Amino acid sequence: MAALGAPLRTLRALLRELRHAAGRSYRDSPAYRHVLEAFRAHRVTSEKLCRAQQELHFQAATYLCLLRSVREHEALHREYHGRGERSPQEVAGLVGFRLPQQPGGKG
Amino acid sequence: LWWAHSPPARFPRPPPADARGGPVGSCGRRAYAPPAERKRFYQNVSISQGEGGFEINLDHRKLKTPQAKLFTVPSEALAIAVATEWDSQKDTIKFYTMHLTTLCNTALDNPTQRNKTQLIRAAVKFLETDTVCYRVEEPPALAELQKNEWDPVVAWAEKRYNVTIGSSTSILGPNIPASTKETFVSHLASYNMWALQGIEFVITQLKSLILSMSLIDRHITVEKAVLLSRLEEEYQIRRWGNVEWAHDYDLCELRARTAAGTLFVHLCSESSTVKHKLLQD
Question: Buried-most residue among B8, B61, B238, B256 (CB within 10 A)?
Fold first, then answer.
C-alpha cells in the first residue's frame, strides 16, 4: 500500500484545492460535498485496515495531486510561456533599433 | 527520388466556427484536436442522470464530445470531477488543462478506433521498452540510483504477478518471456474498455508498464511514480541544477496527466457499494 500519510491532511489539502478551483461558492459545489460525504461515510469502521478506506484515501490523494499539478502547471505556463509573440517594435527594440516612421503611412 | 513517390503535403483547413470546434470529416484526414482556447460561454455547470449514465450540463446545453456524441460517463464521481474541471475555467476555457474531460472524450469517441485486444496489445508491448528495465552502466552514481530505486518496483511486479521480468544494460533491452506477456494480457483483459483507455494513457505518459501497474494497484503514489519515471532527469537536475520553466513545467504536466489517468481508471472500474456490517453485541 502506498505511503499516504494521514487522511485528514489529504482531506484538508483537497478541500483547499477545490476552494482555489471553484471560487466564491465552493462549499455548494458538487465536488466539495461529494468529497466530504465520502470521507464521512468511510470514517466509521471497526477494522484497523479497512480496504475501502484505503482505496478512498488513495483516490483522494490522486485527485489532490491532479488539482495541485494543474494549478501549478497553469501558473508556470502563465509566467513563462503565456506571453505570445513579440511585436515588430519590441523585436527591433531588443537590439536597440527603432522602426522607421513613414509620414502618411506605408505605400 | 522522394518527391516522385510521395504526394505533396496538404495543409489542413482551419476549423469551421461552430460550438464544439471539432474535426470535420469531409476535408480529408484531419487531426482529432479541439482548439486550444475558447471564451467561457456558460455560467453554471451541473450534472444530470440520463439513460446512458451521467451527463454534464453547461447552463441548459448538454455537453457533447468532439465527434458530437452525447457526453455520458458511467460513474457519478467522474461526472462530478469533469463538472469541476469545466467550472474551474475562468475567462477562457483552457482545454489543455482538462485532462479528465479529454480522457472521457477519448473513451467515448475512440478516435484511434482500437478494440480491446488492440489496446491491450499496445499496452503490453511497452514492456519490451519499459523504462525501469533499461539500465545504464555509467555514470556509476546513476547506475546505483537506478538499482536502488527501480529494483524494488520490478521485484514487486514479479512477485505480484508471478512473472519474470528482469532488467538489462544492453541496447536491445530485457528479454521478456512470452509467459510474462500472456500474464499481463490476461490481467488487463479483466478491465473494461474505458479503464483500458486510461491504463494505456498512463503507460504512454510514464513510459513504463511496470510503473503504471504499480500505480494502478495502489502500490505507489502518483508523485512517486512520476519521480521514478523521470529518475535520470532528476539525477541530472540534482547534478546540474533545475530550470523552472522547463523542468518544473514538464513535471507538473506529467503529474497532472498521470493523476488524471489513474483517477480515471479507478473511477471507471470501481463498483462502490457500502456494506453495512452487522453490529455484534
Answer: B256
Please list, in sequence order, all residues whose beta carbon lies within 8 angstroms of the beta carbon of residue A48, skipping any fewer than 6 positions away: none
Cis peptide before B15 (omega within 30 of 0): no
- Read off the C-alpha cell for B61: 446545453
Where do the domains of chain B lie, and which CATH numbers do they carry?
A: 45-97 (3.30.2180.10), 116-269 (1.10.3580.10)
Answer whether residue B66 shows pLDDT above 90: yes
The per-residue pLDDT for range B144-167, each reduced to its tens digit, is: 999 999 999 999 999 999 999 989
B205 at the A interface (CB within 8 A)?
no
Nearest to B23 by CA among B13, B11, B38, B10: B13
Nearest-by-CA chain B residue for A62: B259
Q: pTM of whole model > 0.90?
A: no
Domain residue ranges of chain A, discontinuous segments joined by +: 7-95
Q: What is the 3-class SS of A6-70, one letter each residue?
A: CHHHHHHHHHHHHHHHHCCCHHHCHHHHHHHHHHHHCCCCCCCCCHHHHHHHHHHHHHHHHHHHH
Within its chain, how far is the Cα of B54 from the centroid? Answer: 22
Do A65 and B218 lie within an 8 Å CB cutoff? no
Q: Which three cell numbers stand for residue B158?
A: 514479479
